[in-house]
Amino acid sequence: MRLGIPHADVVTQAVILVALLSALNANMYGTSRMLYSLAERGEAPRTLARRTRRRVPARAVAAASAVGFATVVPEAVFPGAALPLLAKAMGATMLFMWLALACSHLVLRRSLERTGRLVLRTRGFPATTRTVIGAIAALLVLMALSPATRPQLLTSAALSAALALTGAHRARRRHPHPARRTAPPPSSPSREPDPPARASSAPATD
């Protein structure tokens, strides 16, 4: 269909390019700040927590940018094959991430209610959270049943499981359970010393 607008294709491509750059900027900002936050908590290399004089986590931004540029290399080596695979794998990974967030919300919400620290309340809880969990689980089942998406699902599941186990292991090492205190063995009752002998009150005789 022709719109009759001169250079409409160029304008459309420019709009798409600006939208992609905006999405890239937002993802770069979020990824770098997430790396910085993880580094501050000791869950990422400490060097990523260093900031410039303007309080910018430059090393985290550089690391996120390096990973972004590294993802372009497979597409250059295998044109038309690597990018769709990465996009599909990202979709499955996002589903696992949202599933973990929903399960965390289901557990932590009740914990905050018990301790009285709940500030923001979600309407319809827990029905809305359980609905989200059910919908994501249904999508994962559909991906497992489809031969086209099954490899990406299995790859994302293996990666998510490896990251979860690594995180649990690191958390256990950082916060070990306190050793059970063993009760000291019962000491034998000490025998009270015998009272001193009372001196005789009878007068001494020669």
Descriptive notes:
The chain has 206 residues and is mainly alpha-helical. The chain has two domains: 70 residues, no CATH class; 95 residues, no CATH class. Helices cover 63% and strands 0% of the residues. It contains six helices and no strands. The protein is globular. The N and C termini lie far apart (145 Å). Keywords: Amino-acid transport, Membrane, Transmembrane, Transmembrane helix, Transport. Pfam families: AA_permease (PF00324). This is GABA permease. It is found in: Membrane. Its main location: membrane.
Order of helices and strands, N to C?
Answer: HHHHHH
Output mean pLDDT.
Answer: 78
Give the % helix.
55-70%
Share of β-strand residues: under 5%
The number of distinct structural domains comes to: 2
Number of strands: 0
Poorly predicted regions: 180-184
Work out the helix count: 6
Cα distance, first to last residue?
Answer: 145 Å
Structural category = mainly alpha
Determine Rg (CA atoms, Å). Answer: 33 Å
Morphology: globular
